[in-house]
Amino acid sequence: MNALVNSKGFIGIAWALVSIPLLYGLVETAIRVSRLFTQ
Amino acid sequence: MLPGFLSRERTVAGPGFNRWLIPPAALAVHLSIGQVYATSVYRAAMQEHFEASQTAIGFIFSIAIVMLGLSAMAMGTWVDRSGPRAAMFVSACFWVSGFLVGALGIASGQLWLVYLGYGFLGGIGLGIGYISPVSTLIKWFPDRPGLATGMAIMGFGGGALVASPLSGRLLGLYDSDFDPSVSGSIASGGALVGLFLTLAAIYAVFMMFGAFIVRVPADGWKPDGFDPSTVKAKAMVTTASVTAHNAIRTPQFYLLWIVLFCNVTAGIGIIEQASGLIQDFFRDGAGGESSVSTAAAAGFVGLLSIANMAGRFVWSSTSDAVGRKPIYMAYLGAGALLYLAFATVGSSSITLFLLLAIVILSFYGGGFATIPAYLRDLFGTLQVGAIHGRLLTAWSAAGIAGPLILNSILDRAGEPGTLVAADYRPALFVMVGLLVVGFVANLLVRPVSEKYHEKGTDPALEGSKA
C-alpha cells in the first residue's frame, strides 16, 4: 500500500484532487470579482 | 479506543516516502472545513425557513467558531499523541455528523438541532481538523515550516471559495425556482436539506481521503540536504522542546495570544461588513445612493477572499526567509498604518480603497498561517499542535469581539443603507489601536527561558520526532 501511495502517479492524482476544486472556486470568484470592475 | 489502522504507528512512512504527498492530505481536510466561511450563501434561506432573525441564524456560525477554539484547546494534546490520521478521521466524523444533524433540524423545522449539529458537532470537527495536519507538516518540512503550514491554512481560506459557488449551484439544482445570481431569490427548506446532505457526502469522501494518505515521518528522518544546525543558528528559533503544559506558563504564549487576537479582530472589522462597507464608503451623502452596486459589492467580497487566501500562502512562505517576528511586525505595524489610511483617505478613490483592503486582508490571512511556524520556532516541535490548539482560543475570542466592536459602533451611527465612510471611522480607529497593541506584544516576544525546556531532548532529532 505504501508503494502505491508513494508513486508519482498517485501523488499527481492527490494534488489534482485538491487543485481542481480550488481552481473551480478561484474561477467562480474571479467572475464575481470582474463585476466590481465592469459596473 | 480507536481502531488499529488509525494508530500513529500504522501511519509511519517507509524509507523514501515523498513528503509532497502530505500537503494534499492537509488540503483535503482544510478545504472541507473551510466551508464554515461560506454560510452566508444560505443565510437568507435559513432565515426564511425558520422565520428567524439574522442574529438567531448568525448564532449557528458563532457556536461553530467558539467550538473550534474550545475543541482545538481541549483536543490538541490528544491530536499530537494520536497522530494525524486519527485526528482527521475523528474530525471528519464530527464535521459530517454536523451536516447530517443540521439537515435533520432543517427538515423538522427545529433550529436547535442546527445549533447542535452544524454549530456544536461541526464546530468540534472544525477545531480538530484545523490543527490535525499542522504538527505533521512542520515535522515533514523542518526546512520550510512557513511554506508547509501556509499551504494547509491557505486551504481553509480556499474552502469558502469552493463552497460558496458550489452551494449556490446545488441550491439551484434542488430548487428550480432559486437563482443564486438573482438578488432576493431565496432557496426552499427542502433545497437546504439537499445541500447539507450533499456537502456531508462530499466532505466525508474528501476528508477520509486525506486521512488515508497522511503519514508521519519515521524517527530520525530529515529531508535530503537539511542541516538542523542551520536552524539552531537563528536567535529566535529554538531546537529545544517545550510541552503544551509548560508553554501556557510562559509569557511568550500570552504575547502570541494577544498578537493573534488583535490581528484577527482587526481583519474581521473589514470581512464582517465587506459588502456594506464598500457601498457606504462611496455613498453620495448620508441616506444617498451608493455608486457601488450590490453585484459589485459581491465582487469586492470575492476579492477579499482571494486576498485572504493568497496572503496565507505568500506571507507565511516569506516568513521562512525573513523570520517570524519581523513578518508580524509588518502584519501589525504596517497593517496599522494601512488601516489608518483606509479609515481616513480610503473613500477618496476606489482604486486606493481596493489596494488598501487587499493588503490588509492578505496580512490577516498571513497572521493565521504564520502562527504555527512561530510556535514551532519558540516552543519546538514536540507538542506544537497542542500549543497551537490552545492559542486558537484567541480566534474564538476575536470572533466575538470583532463583530461586537464594529456592530455596536455602527448601530449607534444609523440605519444600514444610510451610513457613510465617516460613520465607520471610530470602529476602524479602534482596530488601528488593537493592531498597535498587537505590534507591542510582538515586540516583547523573546526566546523562551531554558527552565521551560524539556530535559534530555536531542536538538538534532527535533525535526524527526514522530
Please explain how this structure is put together.
The complex is a heterodimer of chains A (39) and B (466). Chain A has 39 residues and is an all-alpha fold. Helix content of chain A is 90%, strand content 0%. Chain A has helices at residues 2-5, 8-38. The N and C termini of chain A lie far apart (54 Å). Chain B has a single domain (15-462), classed as Up-down Bundle (Growth Hormone, Chain: A), CATH 1.20.1250. Chain B has 18 helices and no strands. Chain B has helices at 22-33, 43-50, 54-82, 84-108, 111-131, 134-140, 145-174, 189-213, 228-232, 244-247, 251-271, 274-281, 294-322, 324-345, 350-379, 384-391, 393-413, 421-443. Chain B is globular and about 65 Å long. Chain B starts with 21 loop residues before the first helix and ends in a 23-residue tail after the last helix. The chains are: A mainly alpha (39), B mainly alpha (466).
Return the average pLDDT of chain A rounded to an integer. 85
What proportion of the residues of chain B is helical, as a percent range?
over 70%
Largest interface: A-B, 25 and 39 residues
First and last CA, distance of chain B: 20 Å
In CATH terms, the superfamily of chain B is: MFS general substrate transporter like domains
Helical residue percent of chain A? over 70%
Largest sheet composition of chain A: none
CATH topology of chain B: Growth Hormone, Chain: A
